[in-house]
Design a protein that fits this description.
The structure holds 2 protein chains of 2 kinds.
Chain A lengths: L3 E8 L10 E8 L6 H11 L19 E4 L2 E4 L11 E5 L6 E3 L2 E2 L1 H12 L20 H11 L6 H4 L2 H5 L5 H12 L8 H8 L13 H5 L6 H16 L4
Parallel strand pairs in A: 1-5
Antiparallel strand pairs in A: 1-2, 3-4, 3-5, 6-7
Helix pairs in contact in A: 3-6, 6-9
Chain B lengths: L1 E10 L3 H12 L4 E5 L15 E2 L13 H11 L6 H21 L9 E7 L2 E7 L20 E2 L5 H15 L4 E3 L1 E9 L2 E9 L5 E11 L20 H8 L5 E2 L4 E8 L9 H4 L3 E3 L7 H4 L9 H16 L1 E3 L2 E7 L5 H7 L1 H11 L8 E10 L2 E3 L12 E3 L4 E2 L11 H22 L9 H20 L6 H15 L6 H18 L13 H25 L15 E2 H4 L1 E6 L9 E6 L19 E2 L4 H14 L5 H8 L23
Parallel strand pairs in B: 1-2, 1-10, 2-7, 10-18, 17-19, 20-23
Antiparallel strand pairs in B: 3-6, 4-5, 8-9, 9-10, 11-17, 11-21, 12-16, 13-15, 14-15, 15-16, 21-22
Helix pairs in contact in B: 1-4, 1-11, 2-3, 3-11, 5-15, 13-14, 13-15, 14-15
The chains are: A alpha+beta, B alpha/beta.
The complex binds flavin-adenine dinucleotide, iron/sulfur cluster (2 copies) and FE2/S2 (inorganic) cluster (FES).
Chain lengths: 242, 660
């Protein structure tokens, strides 16, 4: 049975002096296999050419299209409309700078996070690429990849109470990144150096463990386990036990 | 007017652009990267299956080396590639994988002892030797003699791009995100940078540089259904073409991937078949062995795609609600394997099809996937016509893929070309030519021309609708410039696309905002996309032969005698409706691997007169070198090492080939 979908979409273009924030309502006939990617493009093509939103991969892997879908952060490109009621409300992710309508500047936020937490492997020295690579236990490589799968979509930050209260909170995304580099034997940073980065209220001690983040992470990362583990470690280090 | 100066301007923040920026930075130059989107969201992030490099660590990779990889690449290209470039590439690929390993990519590793694999539909046991334990492993991919594709599950592009993206941050390379290059600034055959639009504020500025590197990716989105990211609209190629000076090459060489899901066109990796997955028809029959008894599902991509289309034409397709398709069956691999090595595939099936691929077959059909053609450069990545303009990655055609690229060779190419081109760019900047000498009035001219264009678009609502024109272009490309091509269809496509280009010049916009205005973006991109579409179509029309991915139903032979060449495109005058084409012959007399039969279907080749003499010369040389070590023998056949930057000339170590 074909449904008529009613979209209420947040509109505001801060770059346009005449623009005021508000919700616009659109209707659209649902089609089989319709995703929010398809629906939003149809709305733009046929009803309002100025509607702004971000899609890149449209396959759930690039992290561009996080938005609040009926109250919950998620990736719009891989959300099928059939999984939603006929009234759909779309809002931009909070916490991030608004570009226009549903488009927010997660990229800028994530770059700042990377700079702050130094999210790269800290090498002692460069290796000679002509030579055989350093061996690594297969399980170890798989475990690192598991933590490496974050797509920086920002959904966890949007769902996080702490992030809303504290502008500088690194979020589950930041804590997960630290977990990823801690797990990597190629990264030569010491525990004390990690503590420097996240051993405060802007870091792991700011987290209230309400786990909004884990529920919404589109890559199903084990954020809860990682945060709990990091907190234990950082408490020990803070107390001088490690 | 805002002016931004740097030594090397890199346009594109995917794998190729990031690695190139790091290379020039390491040579002490200032650089900055421009990207339409945050760098880590570039299309490269979507690469799934892996990266080819002849490390020879896995059991089924034993005996692999640069020579085998080179031969696979040249055969894969249907002899359309530049063999010197293919040699440089295969020599560099192991270095690139190892560099990435050191920087943090969690490549999957060899586990010693016995483990199960699925080959040709059967479960077999492989035993990995102790000494390979913990080294980088590889999976099988199409068109290769060895298991050579290094991977991290099926998120290889993600792992690579995040590692390079973070490395670029570590090396303090600025990335100016949400910026779009609108035009290249140039005069007298020298490129000086680009006019750039801020996609948030709409502001125009000029980025001036001693050298400019285009790493803008492919042009897949001129097709209505494509596996590509939606930002792959060929703007880099179009910018180069619009200089009127730089040339593009081989745009008609467009790859269709056998397995994109229906109808979304989202890719499921070749790794599915590499790991043992099968293709089945409406009757559940595994049909590939009927057509290609030797390589079956793992024939070269162009071949598998055509065989699938042929099989559907014979009425063996499944009639789905979105048209005909075939099945990809990975249930044979088992849930444990899928959960570990094909997890993106599992997610895609779950979210976009609502199925579990461990239990149900995946509906697939061949879909536009990769752009072999691009900005023509020499082996150093520089445009021979526009000095100071370099290109690398999918945007370029230094020509290592010819008319068909092998799976896994593309992400490898991005990093390798970034490593190499950055060295040549640094050399260029150090040379007498490498200084920035440009008048402000020239810069003003270029900026005000773009400003004028945007103002004209904003000043009128126009008599044509950009969305409709674009949809029509996408449809024409699918219907008439697809897997099977023929003269009459291509001719009518050219006529219609010309009409669309004329119409596109009458487009206006309704939304008047200069800032973050998607309608305006489409309006200025559309004519550029049409120029690329027209060029590819004209190239396909004129090329009256079948080579690699370019298949002409009315000219089915590969015609080396007349067509062993590269198509070049130039857009001489802004008002032209068609590009000017020229052809650049490949030199058979210097080839290491003279043209031969790829071994698919029946042999259907018109030979080049120089092929037999070259083969005879090689045979003779081989007789005299029976005991010569393989690197020296290669050097005697087709020297290439002297062309590499000195730091990269060393041999690659393998377990079987230890370095002193
Ligand atoms: C779904 C999928 C899976 C794939 N899997 C594999 C695989 O397993 N193995 C393999 O070898 N290959 C694979 N490929 C191919 C491979 O991913 C690409 O060829 C490769 O990543 C291209 O990288 P790039 O750096 O050249 O360009 P891209 O990653 O496309 O980057 C282009 C960059 O240019 C920027 N840009 C473009 N135009 C402009 C402009 N006008 N101004 C400013 N910036 C601009 C973009 O923002 C972007 O940052 C796959 C491709 C697809 C579609
Ligand atoms: S558990 Fe911590 S990081 Fe996650 S949502 Fe709650 S406060 Fe934020
Ligand atoms: S942790 Fe999950 S929700 Fe947060 S940014 Fe990464 S992928 Fe998105
Ligand atoms: S568009 Fe890439 S995750 Fe949605």
């Amino acid at each position: 049975m074909s449904r008529t979908l009613t979209f209420s979409i947040f509109r505001h273009n801060p770059g346009d002096p005449g623009s005021r924030p508000g919700l616009d309502v659109f209707t659209l006939e649902e089609a089989p296999g319709m995703t929010l990617f398809i629906a939003l493009n149809l709305l733009r093509d046929e009803q309002d050419p100025s509607l702004a939103f971000d899609f890149v991969c449209r396959a759930g892997v690039c992290g561009s299209c996080g938005m609040i879908i009926n109250g919950r952060p998620g990736l719009a490109c891989r959300t099928l409309t059939e999984a939603l009621p006929p009234r759909i409300t779309l809002l931009p992710l909070p916490t991030f700078e608004l570009i226009a309508d549903l488009s927010v500047n997660t990229g800028k936020w994530m770059r700042a996070l990377s700079e702050r937490l130094q999210t790269w492997v800290h090498l002692d020295e460069e290796t000679d690429p002509d030579r055989l690579e350093e061996p690594m236990e297969p399980e170890r490589a798989e475990a690192i990849y598991e933590l490496d799968r974050c797509i920086e979509c920002g959904c966890c930050v949007a769902a996080c109470g702490t992030a809303r209260m504290r502008e500088d909170f690194v979020g589950a995304v930041g804590l997960n990144k630290i977990a990823r580099f801690r797990a990597d034997p190629r990264d030569k940073r010491s525990e004390a150096q990690y503590f420097e980065l996240i051993g405060d209220d802007e870091g792991v001690f700011g987290c209230m463990s309400l786990l909004g983040c884990q529920d919404v992470c589109p890559k199903s990362l084990s954020l809860q386990t990682q945060i709990a583990f990091l907190r234990r470690k950082m408490v020990q280090i803070g107390a001088g036990f490690a | 007017m805002k002016l931004i100066y740097t030594d090397v301007l890199v346009i594109g923040g995917g794998l190729a652009g990031l690695r190139a920026a790091m290379g020039v930075r390491r040579r002490g130059l200032e650089t900055l990267v421009l990207s339409l989107v945050p760098a880590k969201r570039s299309h490269s992030v979507a690469a799934q299956g892996g990266m080819q490099a002849s490390l020879a660590n896995s059991v089924k990779g034993a005996g692999d080396n640069e020579d085998v990889h080179f031969q696979d690449t040249v055969r894969g290209s249907d002899w359309g590639c530049d063999q010197i470039v293919a040699r440089m590439f295969t020599h560099m690929a192991p270095k690139a994988v190892r560099e990435l390993a050191a920087w943090g990519v969690p490549w999957n590793r060899v586990r010693k002892g016995r483990h199960e694999a699925v080959i040709n539909g059967e479960r077999i046991t492989l035993t990995a030797p102790d000494e390979a334990h913990g080294l980088i492993t590889a999976r099988d991919f199409g068109g290769t003699k060895k298991w050579r594709t290094c991977y991290t599950s099926d998120g290889t592009g993600h792992a690579m791009l995040y590692t390079l993206g973070d490395r670029a941050i570590a090396e303090a390379i600025p990335v100016h995100e949400r910026k779009e290059a609108l035009a290249l600034i140039h005069d007298s055959g020298r490129c000086h940078g680009a006019v750039v639009r801020d996609l948030i504020s709409g502001e125009l500025s000029a980025y001036l540089a001693r050298a400019t590197i285009m790493a803008t990716g492919g042009y897949g989105r001129i097709y209505g259904v494509s596996t590509n990211a939606v930002i792959n609209e060929g703007m880099g190629q179009a910018l180069a073409l619009e200089t009127g000076v730089a040339r593009l090459a081989n745009l008609e060489a467009i790859q269709f991937h056998p397995t994109a899901i229906v109808p979304a066109g989202i890719l499921v990796t070749e790794g599915c078949r590499g790991d043992g997955g099968l293709l089945r028809d409406a009757d559940g029959h595994r049909f590939m062995p009927d057509y290609e008894p030797e390589k079956k599902e793992l024939a070269s991509r162009d071949v598998v795609s055509r065989r699938m289309a042929e099989h559907m034409r014979r009425g063996k397709g499944v009639n789905g609600s979105f048209g005909k398709h075939l099945w990809l069956d990975i249930t044979v691999l088992g849930a444990a394997h899928i959960d570990k090595n094909l997890r993106e595939v599992k997610d895609i099936c779950r979210y976009f099809l609502g199925i579990d691929p461990a239990k149900a077959w995946i509906p697939v059909r061949p879909t536009q996937h990769y752009s072999m053609g691009g900005i023509r450069t020499d082996h150093r990545g520089e445009s021979p016509w526009l000095r100071g303009l370099f290109a690398c990655g999918e945007a370029s055609c230094w020509d290592m893929h010819g008319f068909n690229r092998l799976g896994g060779n593309s992400v490898a190419e991005t990093v390798v070309s970034g490593m190499l081109v950055s060295e040549y760019v640094a050399d260029f900047c150090a040379s007498a030519e490498g200084n920035l000498a440009i008048s402000t009035s020239l810069v003003e001219d270029f900026v005000s021309r773009e400003h004028g264009r945007l103002s004209r678009l904003l000043a009128t609502r126009g008599s044509e609708n950009a969305v409709h024109l674009r949809k029509r272009m996408e449809q024409i490309m699918i219907e008439k410039v697809g897997l099977f091509r023929n003269g009459p269809d291509l001719a009518s496509a050219i006529e219609e696309l010309r009409g669309l280009l004329r119409a596109a010049r009458k487009v206006g916009v309704r939304c008047q905002s200069r800032a973050a205005n998607p309608e305006l973006m489409l309006a200025y991109r559309l004519p550029r996309m049409l120029k690329i579409a027209l060029s590819a179509t004209l190239g396909a029309f004129q090329r009256t032969e079948s080579r690699g991915a370019h298949f002409r139903e009315d000219h089915t032979a590969r015609n080396d005698r007349d067509w062993l060449n590269r198509t070049l495109y130039q857009w001489a005058n802004e008002d032209d409706e068609l590009p000017t084409l020229a052809y650049q012959p490949l030199d058979v007399a210097s080839m290491e691997l003279p043209p031969g039969f790829r071994g698919y279907g029946a042999k259907n080749i018109l030979e080049h007169p120089a092929t037999a003499p070259r083969q005879a010369a090689i045979d003779k040389l081989m007789q005299n070198h029976e005991r010569t070590e393989r690197h020296a023998l290669q050097e005697a056949l087709m020297p290439f090492r002297h062309l590499l930057p000195e730091r990269y000339r060393g041999n690659n170590e393998r377990l079987s080939e230890p370095l002193p």
